[in-house]
From TrEMBL:
MF terms (GO), sorted A to Z: phosphatase activity
Domain Calcineurin-like phosphoesterase residue range list: 19-223
InterPro entries registered for this protein in UniProt: Ap4A_hydrolase, Calcineurin-like_PHP, Metallo-depent_PP-like, MPP_PrpE-like
Pfam annotation, one family: Metallophos
Protein known as: Biotin transporter BioY
Gene Ontology cellular component annotations, sorted alphabetically: cytoplasm
The organism's taxonomic lineage, starting at the top: Bacteria, Bacillati, Bacillota, Bacilli, Bacillales
Amino acid sequence: MRHKPQTRSKVLLADNGVDIIGDVHGCYDEFMELLQRLGYEQTRDGTYRHPHGRKLLSLGDITSRGPYSIKMLQFFHHHVTAGLAEMVDSNHGWKVARWLDGRPVTLAHGDEKVEEEIRLYQQEYGPKKASLLREQSRRLLFSSPSHMIIKRNEQIVAVAVHAGIRDDYIGMDSPAVYTFCRYGDVAGTGPDGRPIRKEWAKERKVTSPIIVWGHDPHPEPKRKNGTINIDQGCVFGGMLTAYRYPEDELVSVPAKRNYSGLTDTPLTRFKADD
């Protein structure tokens, strides 16, 4: 078991633009379709680059529930290493990272699919390549910052975070900040075992900088008090969404199907409330 250095917030310069991607959850085919829609092109070294020098930024939860967690881990390992992309910490990423680190965690809620993928990968490619994959993935997930501060012309213009952040937490470094960024403002667990989520965005008193977040699936992107949620539940049969800065533009592609195996999903619960 190895120890993870606490990862602070990080600054991303967006002078050439940034494309922030919502929760992928192993939906690799939709992710590649979205990259094409955003104008990224594959180069000779196999990486995807934007002709205008834009950067990709993931809101985390690239694995679990869906079919291609390994492909997503490999993509972001290569692109973060090459300086072409960034990714913030997330609840599923944190759980998978601790499992890869040999810690006693229970893989559930789709995380067990990562374990199964890696088991099959080892059968096909052997233990040496599987060990390298595990270590690269572990380092990627553990090195992801709690939140990303986006600057343009030396000004803070946006913050990218997985589940949410209070304004007084921006740029701060503490266990409370990491927990809020991974899980949002949680007020316990309901009788059905689901977390009771407080609407932190509703309570926000300012509207700048823009806070772009995911984690809580909504059928459509949701704007409130200078925040925007771009988790549209792709793995549940919804959409995969990107937020483009500075254009303030949303680009989405539809899911090919519901990969989760669940009939009662966050998206169906929204429809039931209509």
